[in-house]
């Protein structure tokens, strides 16, 4: 890829794509791209000198003999620019292949799993940055650094290993984590057995150490790396014990490892699930050779990731939490952690389902998870890369939710709907464009405080 002058990105506004675009821009290449809609992230890219346009304009694609194209599978093949690029014979590859090529020749530390990987990989990158440096391609915006890309001369690379479209099979990590293998992306895998098969292939590509959450099903045939297990508080290779709740939803705990017991650790962000994430990140860092004292200090100074259990307001009168959760188990875990942090509060959730296929495949599980709230406001399905499926709609979930206080509203009705409610603790869930409401909701709630 290094022989080209221009790097052009189809879907440049995606969180993974934007990190790679930033990487090539930092390396001195001309970077530009297309995305369907403007966002805060595309505005940041433009401010950094990356040209982004939002209309389907083949004439804006740089010359074929000087340009390498990187695309995301989320971009439809019928897009005019995509057809033009294929017809003209541009050199091109998927985002996952580009990340694999960048990782080649470096020591790769990867975090995979159907949920939990963004916070865990971002925390791992923070630990390594505090302990000597690393490059990192993250699936979210680190609050410590304000970006999804970290760069270092140290030849160590932290990568979020995405199972979508089998992307993680482009990586060959020295050390890797598997946080979960719940059924997901069944539009790609058709069933969980094929998903597990892909995770097994990924595990077999790890060379030194494989850290797997206790109880997670994972085929280990062909795995050459040494396998370790981690957990929140279940005794295994890496786990927390003597857990004591602190003010604000944080915890003091002892980290138990094969290297010894380390008392009085705490994570800089609240939620019991982040203790579990910290155990996983610490396990990788310790196996990589980072000193325990450095890991401990970094875990305590971790500020979290935007849109991952992100507490925007926390007052006695109103609390507002935003979370990227878009799988039933993620929602269930988030609600559990929120009830732990805000005991006795009335939880009102706004949920935007992500993808028609995910709604179809997990309607019952979504309904069960969302029934853990006190009130639910449901938005229509965010389709992302998919076309509608006849009969699949948000009502498939809403009708099965056992709450009495539940309603379906359009995005245009959302703010007026909120204005009519007495709110105590509000949560927004979803991976679609629900993020466009975060700032308006926060601004409105602060006016009420």
How would you sum up this structure, described in words?
The chain is an alpha/beta fold. It has three domains: 89 residues, NAD(P)-binding Rossmann-like Domain (Rossmann fold), CATH 3.40.50.720; 196 residues, 3-Layer(aba) Sandwich (UDP-N-acetylmuramoyl-L-alanine:D-glutamate ligase); 139 residues, Protein-Tyrosine Phosphatase, Chain A (Alpha-Beta Complex). Helix content is 32%, strand content 24%. The chain contains 14 helices and 21 strands. A ten-stranded mixed sheet has the order 8-7-9-6-10-11-12-13-14-15, sandwiched between helices. Helix 1 links the parallel strand 1 and strand 2. Helix 5 packs across helix 8 and helix 8 packs antiparallel against helix 9. The termini are far apart. The relative contact order is 0.09. The model has no long low-confidence stretch (mean pLDDT 95).
User: Would you count the extended β strands for me?
Assistant: 21
- Specify the biggest β-sheet: 10 strands, mixed
SSE-based structural type: alpha/beta
The helix content is 25-40%
Which value, in Å, is the CA radius of gyration?
22 Å
Spans where pLDDT lies below 50 across 5 or more residues? none
- In total, the number of domains comes to 3
CATH superfamily of the largest domain: Mur-like, catalytic domain
- Large-scale geometry: globular
Beta-strand level of the residues, as a percent range?
15-25%
Total helices: the number is 14
CATH structural class of the largest domain: Alpha Beta
Shape-level CATH architecture of the largest domain: 3-Layer(aba) Sandwich
């Amino acid at each position: 890829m290094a022989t080209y002058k221009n790097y052009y990105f189809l879907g440049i506004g995606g969180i993974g794509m934007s990190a790679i675009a930033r990487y090539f821009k930092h390396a001195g290449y001309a970077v530009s791209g297309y995305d369907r809609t403007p966002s805060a992230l595309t505005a940041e890219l433009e401010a950094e000198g990356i040209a982004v346009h939002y209309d389907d304009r083949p004439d804006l694609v740089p010359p074929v003999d000087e340009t390498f194209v990187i695309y995301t599978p989320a971009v439809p093949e019928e897009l005019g620019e995509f057809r033009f690029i294929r017809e003209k014979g541009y050199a091109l590859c998927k985002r996952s292949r580009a990340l694999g090529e960048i990782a080649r020749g470096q020591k790769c530390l990867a975090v995979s799993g159907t949920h939990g990987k963004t916070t865990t990989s971002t925390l791992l990158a923070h630990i390594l940055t505090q302990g000597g440096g690393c490059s990192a391609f993250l699936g979210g915006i680190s609050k410590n650094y304000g970006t999804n890309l970290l760069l270092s001369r140290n030849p160590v690379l932290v990568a979020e290993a995405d199972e979508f479209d089998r992307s993680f099979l482009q990586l060959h990590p020295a050390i890797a984590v598997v946080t979960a293998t719940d059924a997901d992306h069944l539009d790609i895998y058709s069933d969980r057995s094929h998903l597990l098969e892909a995770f097994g292939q990924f595990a077999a590509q790890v060379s030194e150490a494989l850290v797997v959450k206790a109880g997670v099903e994972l085929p280990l045939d062909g795995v050459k790396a040494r396998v370790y297990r981690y957990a929140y508080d279940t005794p295994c290779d890496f786990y927390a014990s003597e857990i004591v709740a602190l003010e604000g939803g944080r915890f003091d705990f002892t980290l138990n490892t094969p290297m010894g017991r380390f008392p009085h650790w705490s994570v800089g962000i609240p939620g019991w699930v982040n203790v579990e994430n910290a155990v996983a990140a610490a396990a990788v860092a310790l196996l990589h050779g980072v000193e325990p004292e450095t890991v401990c200090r970094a875990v305590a100074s971790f500020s979290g990731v935007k849109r991952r259990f992100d507490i925007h307001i926390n007052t006695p009168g109103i609390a507002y939490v935003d979370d990227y959760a878009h799988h039933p188990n993620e929602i269930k875990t988030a609600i559990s952690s929120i009830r732990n942090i805000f005991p006795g509060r009335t939880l009102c959730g706004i949920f935007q389902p992500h993808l028609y296929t995910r709604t179809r495949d997990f309607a019952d599980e979504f309904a069960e998870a969302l029934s853990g709230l006190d009130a639910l406001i449901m938005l229509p399905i965010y389709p992302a890369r998919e076309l509608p499926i006849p009969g699949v709609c948000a009502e498939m979930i809403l009708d099965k939710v056992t709450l009495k206080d539940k309603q379906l509203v359009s995005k245009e009705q959302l703010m007026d709907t909120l204005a009519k409610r007495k709110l105590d603790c509000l949560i927004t869930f979803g991976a679609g464009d629900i993020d466009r409401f975060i700032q308006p909701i926060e601004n409105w709630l602060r006016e009420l405080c």
